[in-house]
Amino acid sequence: MHVLVVDDEADVQPLFQQRFRKEIRNGQVVFSFALSGEEALGYLAQNPSKVVLILSDINMPGMSGIELLHIIRQEYNSPPPVVMMVTAYNDQENYEQAMKEGANDFLTKPLDFTALKEKLKTVAE
Amino acid sequence: MHVFSFIAAFLLLRHLLRFVKGTSLAPGWETILNKASWATVGVFLVATTLFQDGMADVMGAIYLIALLAFFTKNPDFKPTFPVLQAFFPYASVIAVSILVQLFAREFYGEWDNYFGMAMIAAFVYIFASWASYRKGQKELEKERQKRLYEEEQKKFISIKKTELEIIVASRTAELIVQKEELKKTIKELQATQTQLIQQEKLASLGELTAGIAHEIQNPLNFVNNFSEVSIELLEELKEGPLQHLPPEEQEHATEILQDLSQNLEKITHHGKRADSIVKGMLQHSRASTGQKEPTDLNALADEYLRLSYHGLRAKDKSFNASLQTEFDPAVGQVPVIQQDIGRVFLNMFNNAFYSVAQKKKNLNGSFEPMVQVRTKKTEDHIEIAVKDNGVGVPQQVLDKIYQPFFTTKPTGEGTGLGLSLSYEIITKGHNGEMKVSSEEGEFAEFVFTIPLENS
């Protein structure tokens, strides 16, 4: 399963790689990373239909996660990737907007990796 | 010559008549004097026609002297004495001249002219002294009038003065009342101002707190996540590659790994602690974002009272406290942000239970812990009071208790955000008020109000 993680914090990359090291070693998951919405769109354009799941932060400089979601649902929606939005603790406004734009799930920081692994399993099945 | 005597008598009677007119003597004397004066004219005519000059002179003289003697003696006419006096010289002159005529006729014939002149002079004297008497009387009268007028004026002034004094007194009283009212108003304004400043400070502190929390959250997440994943990595290392080390190295390596994982656990532990503080701080920023819904405040208070009590009992089995509730059924459904008010209740009750538990620990004896919650509906607001008989709030920290991070609990037991958050929820989120009263070692009572209008 190919997962694209979009977050402007570069340290998210080693964190995911370490957290999912077993899954990556087993070849269950492949991670790609983008530091901005724009970069994510560039990646999607180059690798169409490859990405099954997108995990995106909402508050990022430049394009926000919500904008990214909107464009994905319009331009890269065949087949529709699973999109999970990630944002700070308890942000009702963003939650509603994300759901309206067609997000599949809404996660709050700090990420609970055990729960995330479970979610990935359901998506894979 | 006798004509002068009768004129004098007539004038005397008329004067006395004028004197008695309008006084208390009038009834007895007025008619008598009137008649007497006209009788004088009658006597004069009789004396003139029937008698010789000499005889008429004698009659006139006797008549006048008799009248003078009578009225001078009569006490009723004492005030007229100055006027009567004016007649004495004339009476004397006429008496002397008659006596001289009777007993020294030649002498009289020789000095006839002088007697006549003396008599005329005495007669004129009557008029002169009478006139001067009248003038004096007039002046006296004038003086009297003037004095009367002045007295009236004085009376008038004194009345005015009293009136003015009364007015001044009432004005002064009014002014004093106004002054007192103004003083009170100023005091109230000052109190409100202090309160506003305090609120403003707390509000900006709350905002700052939330802002800081937001910034700290991301790096803190990394700390926690990396430390957790590092513990996992160490586990892996221990189970995998470590096994392949030669046995003499293995022991040393295991020791180091032990320390490393212990350190990482410490990092995780304190990271989690910081995380819970950050979460508390973040609640400041969302204190007023929730939706207000009609809520049964009595039920909510009761629910959280029990929740808090059993929460504490779970941690400390020996703890016991009597719970007293006094719910006003009129409170009913109140539009509030349920979650937020619930948090306020939880904070209040947790603090109350903590306080009584603390006191019990200190006293160790016959202390009966008690936590009380009271609700009341008034005309325009709901009042909720939470009271405990615990350790109380020391006077010197009373104005600090709503500041974020202010706590009297030992490190790690309280974040110092409970009351600051509650304060913000009540004042900012619900436009209410929060007050505290306490006596150290005796009790603490928190009272908050939620206004009812247009909420």
Automatic annotation (TrEMBL), chain A:
Residue positions, PTM 4-aspartylphosphate: D57
PANTHER family, sorted: RESPONSE REGULATORY DOMAIN-CONTAINING PROTEIN, STRESS RESPONSE REGULATOR PROTEIN 1
Protein keywords: Phosphoprotein
Signal peptide location: none
Any single GO BP term: phosphorelay signal transduction system
UniProt-listed SMART domains: REC
PROSITE patterns the UniProt entry points to: RESPONSE_REGULATORY (PS50110)
Origin organism lineage: Bacteria, Pseudomonadati, Bacteroidota, Cytophagia, Cytophagales
UniProt name for this protein: Response regulator
InterPro entries the record matches: Bact_response_regulator, CheY-like_superfamily, Sig_transdc_resp-reg_receiver
Annotated Response regulatory domain residues: 2-124
Classification via Gene3D superfamilies: 3.40.50.2300
SUPFAM superfamilies for the chain: CheY-like
Automatic annotation (TrEMBL), chain B:
Residue intervals passing through the bilayer: 38-71, 83-102, 114-133
Domain Histidine kinase: 211-454
Record keyword GTP-binding present: no
Keyword Kinase: yes
Coiled-coil annotated residue ranges, if any: 135-202
UniProt-listed Enzyme Commission number(s): 2.7.13.3
Reaction catalysis annotation: ATP + protein L-histidine = ADP + protein N-phospho-L-histidine
GO MF term (any one): phosphorelay sensor kinase activity
Assigned keywords, A-Z: Coiled coil, Kinase, Membrane, Phosphoprotein, Transferase, Transmembrane, Transmembrane helix
Name of the molecule in the record: histidine kinase
Protein source organism: Rufibacter glacialis
Lineage of producing organism: Bacteria, Pseudomonadati, Bacteroidota, Cytophagia, Cytophagales
